[in-house]
C-alpha cells in the first residue's frame, strides 16, 4: 500500500468514526499507535471533519448572532490547529528525507507534501458527503443525478491528486525535487500582528 492509499484509508476511517455520533463536541479517540504517521493523519482529518460541520452550522440563517460569533472564534482556533498539524506533517517528511541530497537541478514544488495531503483530506470529506447526497432517498432524482455527476468528478480528482502526491514523494526521495518548508505565519490570531488586537491593547 503506497502513501496515498494509506492516507485515504485513514481519512475515511476518521470520517466514519466522527459520524457515529455526528457531534462537533465529540472527543477524538485516535485508534493508531503513538508517533505513527497514521495517528497524525487521523488527527488531521478529524480536525477537518469537525470544522466541516462547524461551517455547516454557522451558515444556518436562523442562528443566534452570539452563537455565530462564538462559532467563528471556534473555527479560527480550528484553522490554527489545522495549520499547525500540516506543518507538523511537513516536519515529519523533512525528517524522513533528511539524508537525501537533492540533485543540482532539483526543482521546488509549488506546495509542500503536507499541504497536498491537506487537500486530499478535504477531498475525502467532499467525496463522503457528495456520496450521501447522490444516494439520499428524500432528494429528487434530478438532485441525485447532479450529485452523482459531481461525485464522479471528485473521484477522478482523487485519483489525479493521489498520483501527484505519490510522484512528488518519489521525486523527493530520488533528489529530483527539494523540499523547502515555509511556515504560514498567520497574523490574525497574533496579538502583536493583528492591528485590531494590538491597537485595542494600546488603548487600555
Keywords for this structure?
204 residues; two-stranded parallel ribbon; 67% helix; 2% strand; globular
Return the string of H and E elements. Answer: HHHEHHEH
Number of helices: 6
Q: How many whole angstroms does the radius of gyration measure?
A: 20 Å
- Strand share of the residues? under 5%
Shape: globular
Average pLDDT score: 93
Briefly note the structural class of the backbone: mainly alpha
Measured between the Cα atoms of the first and last residue, the distance is 58 Å
- Strand tally: 2
- Major sheet strand order: 1-2
- In the predicted model, the low-confidence regions spanning at least 5 consecutive residues are none
Number of domains: 1
User: What characterizes the major β-sheet?
Assistant: 2 strands, parallel
Helix content: 55-70%
Characterization of this structure:
By secondary structure, the protein is mainly alpha-helical. The protein has one domain. The chain has helices at 3-21, 37-58, 65-96, 113-134, 141-173, 195-203; strands at 107-108, 177-178. The protein has a two-stranded parallel sheet with strand order 1-2. The longest helix has 33 residues, at 141-173. The relative contact order is 0.12. The mean pLDDT is 93. Pfam families: DUF4254. InterPro entries: DUF4254 (IPR025350). This is DUF4254 domain-containing protein.
